[in-house]
């Protein structure tokens, strides 16, 4: 998982930055991170519980030091963004960065914050617009499946809102989510603009099964996606975006 695009966007650094400049900026970020508020939010027990349940099948997330870095990342983000109420989605999105940058808390935090800023995570209007645009594209590209969802009374907010909001960090197995985000970061500066098209590709991949499912089965499948060929769905997403 790489977030050089995200970091550069956040700090407005030129892409040709020298190694010396990068080192200096890294040291500045470490100092800045250490100066951030160290107070935990009021609902810290809830956050600790969510971190404690996050991918416990992976040994790294059982380590106390990793949990401490995880908690600091989420707590600092909430302290620096007081308009943002805690959302369990934050745990899943921060978790991808924790997995990669757990040994560098300042880089971890700034990568995470930069992505959240880019996605406009704290503004519900952004999520609602993304949801509306995606559902319109879904209706136009797969009308039969769309109407099956309607017949089964599957509400878009039961699945598609999280798909847009978490960029599938909640729904995909961790290795698949990391591969997906890595593709977005590597694609170009607007790589995350591919996301709705990739989501449509995933629906096409699952369409045959989904058409046979009833409401509860549909929602469960869309909230717990199987392992997917991420390269394949991303390639289809790129084709749909062009």
Task: Explain what the structure shows.
The structure is a single chain. The chain is an all-alpha fold and 242 residues long. The chain folds into 2 domains: 4-119, Helicase, Ruva Protein, domain 3, CATH 1.10.8; 124-241, Ypt/Rab-GAP domain of gyp1p, domain 3 (Cyclin A, domain 1, Orthogonal Bundle), CATH 1.10.472.80. The chain has 13 helices and no strands. Helix 1 (4-11) crosses helix 6 (105-119), helix 7 (124-141) packs across helix 9 and helix 11 crosses helix 13 (230-241). This is Rab-GAP TBC domain-containing protein. Residues 1-188 form the Rab-GAP TBC domain. It comes from Sphaeroforma arctica JP610. GO terms for molecular function: GTPase activator activity.
Low-confidence stretches: 1-21
By DSSP, the count of extended strands is 0
Number of helices: 13
- The CATH topology annotation of the largest domain reads as Cyclin A, domain 1
Radius of gyration, Cα only, in angstroms?
19 Å
CATH class of the largest domain: Mainly Alpha
Taken together, the total number of domains comes to 2
CATH evolutionary superfamily of the largest domain: Ypt/Rab-GAP domain of gyp1p, domain 3
How widely separated are the two ends? 25 Å
The H/E string reads HHHHHHHHHHHHH
Structural class: mainly alpha
Average pLDDT rating: 87
Organism: Sphaeroforma arctica JP610
GO molecular function, one term: GTPase activator activity
Pfam families: RabGAP-TBC (PF00566)
Domain Rab-GAP TBC: 1-188
């Amino acid at each position: 998982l790489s977030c050089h695009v995200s970091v550069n966007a956040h700090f407005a650094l030129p892409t040709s930055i020298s190694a010396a400049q990068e080192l200096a900026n890294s040291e500045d970020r470490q100092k800045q991170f250490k100066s951030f508020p160290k107070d935990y939010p009021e609902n810290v027990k809830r956050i600790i519980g969510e971190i404690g349940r996050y991918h416990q099948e992976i040994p790294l997330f059982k380590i106390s030091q990793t949990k401490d870095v995880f908690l600091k990342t989420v707590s600092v983000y909430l302290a620096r963004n007081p308009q943002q109420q805690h959302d369990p989605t934050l745990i899943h999105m921060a978790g991808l960065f924790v997995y990669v940058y757990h040994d560098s808390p300042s880089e971890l935090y700034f990568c995470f914050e930069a992505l959240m800023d880019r996605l406009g995570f704290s503004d519900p209007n952004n999520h609602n617009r993304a949801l509306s645009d995606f559902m319109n594209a879904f209706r136009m590209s797969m009308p039969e499946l769309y109407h099956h969802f309607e017949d089964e009374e599957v509400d878009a907010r039961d699945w598609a809102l999280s798909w847009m909001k978490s960029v599938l960090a909640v729904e995909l197995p961790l290795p698949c989510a990391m591969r997906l985000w890595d593709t977005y970061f590597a694609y170009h500066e607007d790589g995350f603009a591919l996301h709705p098209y990739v989501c449509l590709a995933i629906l096409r991949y699952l369409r045959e099964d989904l058409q046979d499912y009833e409401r509860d089965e549909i929602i469960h499948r869309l909230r717990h996606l199987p392992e997917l060929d991420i390269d394949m769905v991303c390639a289809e997403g790129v084709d749909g975006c062009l």
